[in-house]
């Protein structure tokens, strides 16, 4: 069972796609959002959830006050689950893009304050690096990027303009934080 940890939808359950996704555990989401909320105010933030799966990260952000979340998921079944979760939770402030993360970040679009990237373990370092580099032009000043990977994968190659903030391991999972460098 996957559920929202805190906020307006705290305790509500999320449906999970039948296969091919690994929702971020409640323990990791609780720690991740505690750190995120100490770093920035989520109220009104524009959030991008790449490789969204069930949407646990984006929906958690919305529950905690984010203004809008865009979910990017290439699997049609998972995208349908995302639509159902948004409706069930009553979050109308969502956009669901059924396409690859790489195709999404290379298209023109809105800017984001927070980006979550939780790629399947099969996504290689080079592919992830292309996605992270592609999203940089669409990030606001001081935007935060959070990448979740298998602990054995190591820290992602942060693109120019993004500096590493921190890394934290949770068993087999590691969470890496990057932030857009402020000029000045």
Automatic annotation (TrEMBL):
Annotated GO biological processes are: rRNA methylation
Q: Which SUPFAM superfamilies match?
A: S-adenosyl-L-methionine-dependent methyltransferases
> What InterPro entries has UniProt attached to this entry?
DNA_methylase_N6_adenine_CS, RNA_MeTrfase_RsmD, SAM-dependent_MTases_sf
What keywords appear on the UniProt entry? Methyltransferase, Transferase
Named from the GO MF annotations, one term is: nucleic acid binding
The annotated region (Disordered) lies at 1-23
- Pfam families xref list: Cons_hypoth95
According to UniProt, the name of this protein is 16S rRNA (Guanine966-N2)-methyltransferase
Q: Kindly give the CDD domains that the UniProt entry links to this protein.
A: AdoMet_MTases
Q: Transferase: present as a keyword of the record?
A: yes
